[in-house]
Amino acid sequence: MTISLAEVQQLAEEMTEIDPQIERERYQDTIVERIMTVDPTVKDDVIGAFRAFDPEDSGNISVVMLRYVLQTLGEPLEDAAVDEMLRECEIDDDGNVNYYNYVSMVLFPAMDLGA
Predict the structure, then answer these.
(1) Is 75 left (phi over 0), alpha (psi -120 to 50) or beta?
(2) What angle separates helix 40-51 from helix 99-107, to the nearest 10 degrees?
(3) Alpha carbon distance 95, 115 (integer Å)
(4) What residues are paired with 95 via a beta bridge?
(5) Could you tell me the pTM of the whole model?
(6) Which DSSP string corresponds to the chain?
(7) 50-77 confidence digits (pLDDT tens)
C-alpha cells in the first residue's frame, strides 16, 4: 500500500481536530518515519529480481528493459507512471540505470514535508 504525502497531511489535520494538543508537524513526522521503515529483505528481494535481467552482474539495467519490467511484471504500470519514474532516474550515457540506486530511490524517496 502506498500513501501519499497529501494523505499524511490530511491524517495530521484530522488528528489535530480530534485532539488539539497533538502537534501537526510532530504527528506528520511520526507517520512518515513509520512509512519509511522498510523491511530490509524487501530491498534485497527487489534487487534480486533486477539481477535476473543483468547477466553480467554490472548493477545496471537498460532503460528499455526497466520500462519493460515496470509495465509487464507484478502490477503493471501505465506509460505515464513509468515516464514519471524514469524522469527521476539517473541514466548513464549508454542508456542504463543503476538498479541499486533505482531501488533505493523507490523504497526510500526524499520527502519534502513543507506545510
Answers:
(1) beta
(2) 140
(3) 37
(4) none
(5) 0.57
(6) ----HHHHHHHHHHHHHH-TTS-HHHHHHHHHHHHH---HHHHHHHHHHHHTT-TT--SEEEHHHHHHHHHHSSSPPPHHHHHHHHHHS-B-TTSEEEHHHHHHHHHS-------
(7) 888 898 999 999 999 988 888 887 777 8
